[in-house]
Amino acid sequence: MSTGEKRALSSSQAGGLCSARRCADAQFEGGVSRAARERSVSPSTRFQRVTIGLGLVLLALACHTSAPAPAPAPSAGLPLVAPESLGFDSLRLDSVVVYLQTQVDSAFPGAVVAVGRHGRLALLAAIGHYAANDPRPVEPGTIYDLASLTKVIALTTECILLVDQGKLDLDAPVQRYLPEFRGPMKDSVTIRHLLTHSAGLAADLPLWDSTRTRAAALALVDTSPLLSPPGTQYVYSDLSAIVLMQVVERITGRPFDQVLADDVFGPLGMTATRFVPPKAWRRHIAPTEVDTFFRHRLLIGEVHDESAARLGGVSGNAGLFSNAPDLAQFASWLLDARAGRLTPRPRPGVNAELVRQFTTKQDIPPGSSRALGWDTPSGRSSGGSAPPADAFGHTGYTGTSIWLYPTQDMFVILLTNRVNPTRTNIKILNVRPRVADYAQAALTRPDL
User: Fold this and answer.
1) Rounded distance between C-alpha atoms, residue 414 and residue 402, angstroms
2) What is the pLDDT of residues 214-270, one digit of tens each?
3) What is the pTM of this model?
4) Alpha-carbon span 111 to 25, nearest angstrom
5) 8 A C-beta contact, residue 13 and residue 384
6) DSSP character for 276?
């Protein structure tokens, strides 16, 4: 969550879950939504529409040879198959799309949803339009600012790989890797504390208006005081992610964005996933907010988060852009890795038990729902009202979410730009759990 979000979220709305500022996945009532439009979609029509739509997107992108293609080639994405072949009831799965159509111009301008199992997609649908003032229909390959999904898709994944390679020790002090991380009690902060948001660091700092360079911003983060002893309090902290990003860079000797391109996005064929997307991608990126207090313009292809913006758009807390087909590819790989299923190269190989550790609640501090980087269901979860016990996921402040259900080998991805034109629209908090519930209810043959 960015510094400016404090202006939109009150302590009563967030229920006191996060102190200094309100965390991106805090749950509160989003008000009464307005039904924009609702129509039924037959399974055959939806399947044909999504398949044809994705094909047209890929064809159109291929014609623009002067710019990097922001959508993956067909061979890089997961195959879209009949929902019944994956154990879903087609009519029930259609309810996901029908419901999201009612939320257009209410909870968000547009959205893309992906539901899959067993390395295949049962649903890939685009709903609504690009922005409040952009009537172009959203496409399955439309790219979104992932916001805090960066913490899990990028930062946590790289940490898994580094631990697996013996280069990162979860219980080592942060100062072993980053001596600049100094101050009272900081010698007791471990990598595990950073990943569970229990390091004692503040939620965020106004880097955007208190520093002018990336180096100055990082120095301010590294020397910021702890607000509580390590391991004693949960505070969802962008600062923890920024510190951990620096640890990754020190271990690898490479810039953070290059590390992820080399180790994760490239091997997984995630061709629409990157930090600081080129200008040639702009027409395929859903705008976020009309920034009225920092950059004073509509943000398209610029990271929404102010702290990540001060860091040049490359950060561990935010800055990643991607689309649903790429994230589906990622989710399928992570579920395979967690289950110990062998996957063909160049997909990264990693120890299954380690992935399970990263995606299991750590209980640090006692009562926290956080796994290592990832979150697990707790109370009114964005992963659904009654998700499986081993579910894990994360949300992004711009209106994005990803949830994985290992028992069912299933994932649900929702990408929206709910902050367009303004972050004051918080109805997405009601949308996420309903989408997850509809998708779960559509799985009538979990044995398949």
Assistant:
1) 6
2) 999 999 999 999 999 999 999 999 999 999 999 999 999 999 999 999 999 999 999
3) 0.86
4) 18
5) no
6) S
Nearest-5° Cα angle at 193, 191 to 195: 70
185 phi and psi, to 5 degrees?
Answer: 70, -5
Residues marked as catalytic: 148
Task: Give the confidence band of 11 by pLDDT, cuts at 50, 70, 90.
Answer: very low
Look at the block and give the residue holding tokens 């994005």. 400
β-bridge pairing 320-322 and 144-145:
antiparallel
- DSSP assignments along 205-243, one per residue: --HHHH-SSHHHHHHHHHTPPPSS-TTS-----HHHHHH
CATH topology for 36-151+261-442 is Beta-lactamase (3.40.710)
Is the Cβ–Cβ distance between 117 and 46 less than 8 Å? Answer: no
Residue-range domain boundaries for the chain = 36-151+261-442
Which pairs with CB-CB distance under 8 Å and at least 24 residues apart come from 260-266? 260/154, 260/157, 260/158, 263/158, 263/161, 263/348, 264/154, 264/157, 264/158, 264/161, 264/330, 264/348, 265/326, 266/346
Residue type, 272: A
State how far Cα 437 lies from the chain centre: 19
